[in-house]
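My hope is that you will study the record closing this message with an eye to the fold:
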Amino acid sequence: MAGSVTTRKQNSKCRTKVKTGCTTCRIRKVKCDEKRPFCLRCVNTGRACDGYESPFRIFPSQPSRSSHSGDSSSAVDLQPVQPVQPPIIEITPQDIDLLNRCFSTKTILDVELGCDAEARQALQASLTDPSIRHAISSLRALREDFETSGDDPASVAPPTPGYHYGLQQYSMALGGLTSKMSSPGSDRLKSALLCCQIFISIEQVQKNYAAMIQHIIQGLRIMHEYRARPYFATVNRLIPAHHDQLPLLDVFVIKVFAAPCKFADTSTTADTSVTTLPPHQQPVESRNFRAIAPDMRTELTRIATSSLEFLSKVSQVESVGIGFQLLSDKAALLASLDSWLIDLEHVQTETEYPRPEPISVSFLRLFHLILKIVLLGALDSSPDLDAKLRIENDRLQGLANIVDERAKAYTTCSGTSHGRGERPTVR
């Protein structure tokens, strides 16, 4: 008898703790089938499935200015955390306009994003959610520092206290959200998507495009797994949204990418052998390509506008018949995206533009992939959908990594020259 007890204890010690699975199964210490958005073990036993751990993690900060300050420890030697200001009692139009402006660096050029509703929702939630409040404080501080310090690496001073404060608030927001997502609660999804929206803007203002895309992918994955919109479970069965009050992150991302960009009049590469030539001496191919590239963006923006209209209809669909019509609209939009990509490749082939391609075109490719991922997940729950989305997400992240490296290399090579090439941050 004593031997069997000892054996059981030894076996229990040798078991590997499972760190995956839904929160409910982990608390019950039973094996989870990890179906999403809700595991079948909980559903079949009549239990409420509390979902899975947070997909967010704290990304290593990559402050672009610290590499030019001459002090390698400045990025981690942070100032004491300033106390967070008490939440505002009344959200004013000025507060909404300020946050809307902070969502993208494009607004430096007086571009209208049309994200007032998103700003109002985030500000309202920040009154009771510390993670969102920290995220907004971070975005405001980093955006103010960006506008004050400028975008020229040769003129960059050591990181300011405001910049340090912004990074601290960002870290606190990430930590708070990670803790919140690991515990049950219906409000955690809303908090995650609102924070994700702000995190995207934070990474953009720091020019960390790879991390920005990571947040986009994670946010879209949450929307898909928890069914923020109605979808077809089978051919003739339309299921209402599981969480119809979730923030629509896909709409926010499309708005940010679709907003007008500043296109350069000269070459957009960092190759000084090209950028130093006056326009009349530059190769005919590059001039032709720059003349066509804005037209490529115009068509992609048109598809994006149609996609926003489509997503709005999906959110309101109530009948199978209308759902079938929307599936037809979805197929047409995906076909338009395929045609756009073929046209872009044709333009590059015809103009024989030197590689690597302009950063502005790489951002168009990012936008194209984001639209495709959003549309693929709409109204669909087919068995092979997850595999398709995984492939496209990997492509999107791979392209973002390339853009991130090229943008940083461009900033380093651009020196003190002004008006030469494009500003990768204005996207």
Notes: The two ends are 71 Å apart (CA to CA). The chain has three domains: 17-53, 59-206, 208-427. Residues 12-18, 54-81, 263-289, 414-427 have pLDDT under 50 and may be disordered.
